[in-house]
Amino acid sequence: MRPGRGRPAPAQGARAAGLRASSGLLDRLLRGRGWVLCIGLLLVGIVFLNVRVLELDRSTTAAAERAKVLKRENAALRLRAAELGSSERIQAAAAEQGLVWPEPGRVRYLRSQTGVDARRAAAHVRGGRSAKVP
Description:
Oligomer: single chain
């Protein structure tokens, strides 16, 4: 034997023997087919989860873009509705058609008569012929 390469001291020898025994068991566990399959399945699961996260991110981004487009459309439609509903525009359109404001005191309300008004309206629609109204 070469000097310094003799047997280890007893305390070191016991520790080394314990390591060899546990490393042998660990080696057998890690090299077994079951563990390889289990680790492979875990890796496939991680890849699958990452793909799903990317798909969800893409769909979330698409939904956010669609929401932005719809908000812009809603703002444009609200602006158009405000323009169409402005009293100045309505008064100008009425004036173009020859409509004028009634004089004060000339505004009156009509009372409806059940059945009579419907028959009169139907007669006007049908060109003078009265129609039966249920």
